[in-house]
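Trying the structure run again after the queue cleared.
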Amino acid sequence: MCVLVLGGAGYIGSHMVRYLQDLSVPCVVIDDLSTGFEDSINGVPFYKGNFSDRELLRRVLKDHSIKSVLHFAAFSQVGESMTEPSKYYYNNLVKTQVLLEVMRQCEVSNFVFSSTAAVYGDPVCNQIDESHPLTPINPYGRSKLAVEWLLEDYSNAYGFKVMTLRYFNAAGAQPDASNGERHEPETHLIPLVLQALSGRRESISVFGNDYSTVDGSCVRDYIHILDLASAHGKALDWLERQDEGIFEPVNLGNGAGYSVIDIINTAQLVSGRKARVLDAPRRLGDPAVLVASSSKAKKLLNWEPEFDSLGEIIEHAWNWEKKLVN
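Done. Tokens:
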């Protein structure tokens, strides 16, 4: 089985490549390096290009006898999607439809989609499972949900075998600090807090302190990047065992919610340092609480998160941050 990893130079994609390498599963990467880093790919065959480039896709799918595709090549910033919805619908939806057409022509049907908890919108219960209403409140979430609809239709009509993994907040780094999170610009909470602690950033802003949560700040579910990778690996194995087209949405998370203040306090404890914390207005499109129920993933995929301690997740990210500073 050779796996095509789209967006394999990015944060999640590059950790997935490392995971496949550790299991001796051959893989190939396509990435335009708009947000990724070539030095994170770690020696697998790499093609710099766009995942909607039909000729490139055909060549890679045929030349490498691709059996399955992992799709991480989406734009994912909620705030930006509110002001630039065209960018999100074009990249996340339109280009994915081109990809699926080329896959269909090349008779490649196994597909694992990197989706998001943003498809749920504002939660109506404390722990979100896959039966929760799909009512996204921002263009990012709506573009991802539109892709899910597209994938379900391709599954029904063309026999695609699809697992869409709806995950919450990817965090952490390789335990040996050989790879981690580096976005330019950075928008994710944990690395922003760590940058404020390491001195690369003057302060950290808390966007909203009047949500209906314990301390007034947003609550999220954080999942270690290596646990995400292992779940994707199990998803690939599960799809291989299916005899016909199927569309299966699955949540990935730790099932525990941590507020922005929790993250800041834990990061300060791990680092032994203090950050300058500023209050800021709420951001458009941010729900108060997003926490996953991952019971389906545990049962269907026989998956269990290995790194489910917030302190351990932040410790691994802090070791990576110190490496970047040094």
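The chain has two domains: 2-170+223-252, 171-220+255-325. Worth checking whether this holds up in the mutant runs.
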